[in-house]
Amino acid sequence: MPTPPAVTSRRALVAGAGSVGAAAVVGVGAGPAQAAYKPRRYRGKPLLGAADRHLVNRFSYGNTPSLTRQVRRAGGGRTWFEKQLQPGRIKDGRTDALEGWWPSLTRSPQDLWNRQVQEVEGGWQVMADYQRWILMRRVTTNRPVWELMAEFWMNHFNVPVHHDATFTHRFDFDRVVRRYALTSFEELLRRAVTHPAMGIFLDAAVSTKEHPNENLGRELLELHTVGYGQYDESDVKDSARILTGYLVDMWGTWEASYSPRDHWTGAVSVLGFTHANKSADGRAVAEAFLAHLARHPATARRIARKLCVTFVRDEPSQALVDHLAEVYLRNDTAIKPVLRALVASSEFKKSGGLKVREPSAEIVATYRALRVRISDPPAGDNGFAARVILWQAEAIGAVPFDWPRPDGPPADNAAWSSPARLLASMDTHWAMSGGWWPSEGIRYRTARAWLPRKRLRYDLLVDHLSQQLLGRRSSSRLLQACVEVCPDEWKIRPSTKITMAHPLMKWGFHRVIATILDSPDHFTR
Asked: Is the pLDDT of residue 21 over 70?
């Protein structure tokens, strides 16, 4: 859609005149060079303290007044986090109901394939709806820690949704990873690696004793467990041999099965794991092998570092990585103790605002901040917000589980901090702040609903909106940006009295909302 003229001034205010790299997104280019105004404080609902706000920002898809109330009712951030580690005890009916919006997600592999070849519904269409379901879950969920960990592990065990025929089993792969996302890495590794979606993606679904395919055997070592440089080619070959027998009836029924007659037998040795492997049914060998890899010290360090990069900072200290790896091994690969140790670390507590939201997460955070209400999209209507949300994420740089390579998407700031991404996000903020796009199947809050009183000073309004949208007080630079984004003829100053009769509320309220969403506090977590 065309860029509105007023966006130019917001870009100058928020992005700054220099390079817009990771540093700019994280906070260097937060507004004018010198802020001339001192913000006043609006007395609204109690906010979270800095430590609790940081924990919630890092382990949710965007703070909201509702989430703030949940944390306060729980007794604080750490208590809330501990409750989140028991997702089965948290009611989330609105999120659970989303599955019914896209009924093809639960069709059998055979049914999905038949509908594609009969040109009723393409697999790519089902997977696009799966991505929409994912985004909508993140918008609505009351169980963000579980959702984030499901995302983390699906990125770790990456199975691209649009890779050839993975669509036949991809939704079930989600259900399996989600079910074990907070259990143990050993259990998760076994379930993910032997799943038919993984087999289709990395060719284990057609790997037999006559022709062992090395793709999954190699990526299991390089990406899923010990990491590059920890193994040699003989390890790869035996890894592939161990995994033979987990087949899928490709291009036929798409049924997954274990075939003893296709399992390679004979002695194997991989990274200290040895086995005679004499039985035609090699599932016990495969499970023992995966258990060994899950407990390997190199795996512990790799998982620990990946968690740190995702939830702490791009360059975590070796001390923190080693500590989390030790917790992981001491607790027999259990995931929850590692997460507890991570959030308890001083390094985590000092890392507020140092992680950039990747594009789809930022789209979700925008929907959450604006507190929009989204309707079930009717069949065939592509203008509804529940479908448009995928295109919005795509427009600013990334959509869920679309990374084509087996290594999964990057988690560092530099990957998501380009000038193009920043400006595309700002265009989305402008369109949604004005309620222009998407406009169907979505209900935006009115300007009146955002105004806390019938009459108040502009600086108090900006502080109120900062609390509502960002969960924190306004800064001097944010206040000045919100002043300067308004047309000169409105003569807005911090002391200007705002009522519903003011031009700001009649025609330009979106300017203020968009400017607050353009701030580094919204782009980072």
From this structure: no
Q: Is the Cβ–Cβ distance between 133 and 125 less than 8 Å?
A: no
pTM of the model: 0.94
- Residue 10 has what pLDDT? 54
Instruction: Quote the tokens at residue 429.
Output: 């903020």
Cα gap 355→523, rounded to integer Å: 9
Q: Which pLDDT does position 13 carry in this prediction?
A: 47
- What lies within 8 Å, CB to CB, of 434 at 6+ separation is 510, 514
Instruction: Give dist(CA 441, CA 383) in Å, integer.
Output: 8
Q: Residue 56 in contact with residue 63, Cβ under 8 Å?
A: yes
Q: If you ran DSSP here, which 8-state letter would residue 184 be given? A: B
Per residue in 348-368, pLDDT (tens digit) is 999 999 999 999 999 999 999
DSSP, collapsed to helix, strand or coil, labels residue 182 as coil
Burial of 272 (0-12, 13-18, 19+ CB in 10 A): exposed
For residue 497, give the 3-state DSSP assignment.
Answer: strand
State pLDDT tens for residues 176-203: 999 999 999 999 999 999 999 999 999 9
Report the distance separating Cα 366 and Cα 370, nearest Å.
Answer: 6
What gap in Å lies between CA 246 and CA 144, rounded to an integer? 33
Listed as own residue / partner, the contacts of 177-182 with beta carbons closer than 8 Å and 24 or more positions apart are 177/150, 177/153, 178/146, 178/150, 181/146, 181/149, 181/150, 181/152, 181/153, 181/335, 182/85, 182/87, 182/145, 182/146, 182/149, 182/335, 182/336
> What are the two backbone dihedrals, phi and then psi, of residue 187, each rounded to the nearest 5 degrees?
-65, -45
The sign one gets for the Cα dihedral 83, 88, 91, 97 is positive
311 vs 355: CA distance, rounded Å: 8
**Facing residues of 340 across strands?**
none
Distance separating alpha carbons of residues 452 and 455, to the nearest angstrom: 8
pLDDT band at residue 28 under the 50/70/90 scheme:
very low
Instruction: Count Cα atoms within 13 angstroms, Cβ side, for 261.
Output: 0
Four-residue CA torsion sign, 338, 339, 341, 346? positive
Beta bridge partners of 248: 256
Task: Map 442-495 to HEC letters.
Answer: EECCCHHHHCCCCCEEHHHHHHHHHHHHHCCCCCHHHHHHHHHCCCHHHCCCCC
Tell me the C-alpha distance between 402 and 415, whole Å: 15
Q: What is the pLDDT of residues 104-119, one digit of tens each?
A: 999 999 999 999 999 9
Structure tokens at 443: 């209900």
| Rounded CA separation 406/219 (Å) | 8
Residue % of the chain over a pLDDT of 90: 91
Residue with tokens 């448009």: 388
Nearest to 148 by CA among 128, 177, 169: 177
